[in-house]
Amino acid sequence: MPLDDEARAIMARINKKHGAGSVIVASTMPVAPRFTTGSISLDVMLGGGWPGNQWNEIVGSESSGKTTVAHKTIAANQQRDPEFQTFWVAAEHYDSEWATALGVDVDRVAVYSTNAMEDAYTAMLQAAESRAFDAVVLDSYPALVAADEDAKEMDQATISAGARITGRFFRKVGAVTRRSLVELERPLLPLIINQWRDQIGGWSPSGMTPKTSPGGKAKNYAYYTRVEASRTEWLDEKRPGGGSIRVGQVIKLKTIKSKSAAPQQVATVKFYFADSSSGILKGEYDTTAEIVTMGMFHGVIELSGGWYRYRENRWQGKDKMNAAIRHDLTLQEQLTEDVLDRVRPGVE
């Protein structure tokens, strides 16, 4: 049943005082689009991709693939949108050659190199508020240094300086990230990369040392989505004449928190940091394996006997299906869209 006249009268008074569009009926709100991660498995895990206009965290141990996931996200969205622009705060070194190998068009990435926490946060606020950028990325939080900490000697303690500033940042950033409730404005993808630390003195029922991420607890409440990245195994290939070479790794991703999809979901992706004999090039995900796995899991690809069927396409044997999908970009896009239609919020 729609809102009654009394409720609409209250809405009108609020809008008159605070401006048109301050209060609207929820059913008329524009839905912010989602941003692809470049991986169908991760997109499915997130309910269709990174939620727009909300702050997201990628956290994990060192060399787990955090920055790779961020770069692949930027590359995939650049491929979809030729006007997609990114503001990247490099608290650590920005390797433009590696970013290029991962598919990023570095001509569309503005890099601000600083590890001064206050300066980094101020720049991120300005970039988000400007509407000039489609993505704001911080890589990474542990490299930032608060001014109070930087001004002191090595033997002087500065307790929670970074956490206090981070809490202040998230109290401010909501206003600049917020978009109109009436019109669909240019959406923003904000990503912050963080790293696990051992929680000294913490207790875990499993007996393992519990983990925590620097920056205090305020940020955990502010994030709309928190994704954990970890490396589960290496990808090695045998070479003619004996021996093997390491060509990639399997990145496992899990939603620690998600306010727009089911939490505690898991996705895995094979990432290659060297050319593979299977034809997958350096810097690529094994997208064909992901599409086939997700397509069969969600019933988009049907199996009958030894035959695989998708829409009007039929293949006898998995190898023939994989080969056809690997070499047909249109088929990949169609399959991906059909899978995501099954998992997007509000889609039946």
Main attributes of the structure:
348 residues, alpha/beta, Rossmann fold, Rec A Protein, domain 2, nine-stranded mixed β-sheet, three-stranded antiparallel β-sheet, 11 helices, globular
Stretches with pLDDT under 50, minimum 5 residues? none
CATH homologous superfamily of the largest domain?
Answer: P-loop containing nucleotide triphosphate hydrolases
Q: Which fold name fills CATH's third level, the topology of the largest domain?
A: Rossmann fold
What structural class do the secondary elements suggest?
Answer: alpha/beta
Q: Helices and strands in order, then pairings?
A:
Blueprint: H1 5-18, E1 34-35, H2 40-45, E2 50-51, E3 56-60, H3 66-80, E4 86-90, H4 96-101, E5 109-113, H5 117-130, E6 135-139, H6 147-150, H7 161-177, E7 189-195, E8 197-198, E9 211-212, H8 218-222, E10 225-238, E11 244-258, E12 266-272, E13 284-285, H9 287-297, E14 302-304, E15 307-310, E16 313-316, H10 318-326, H11 329-343
Parallel strand pairs: 3-7, 3-10, 4-5, 4-6, 6-7
Antiparallel strand pairs: 1-2, 8-9, 10-11, 11-12, 12-13, 14-15, 15-16
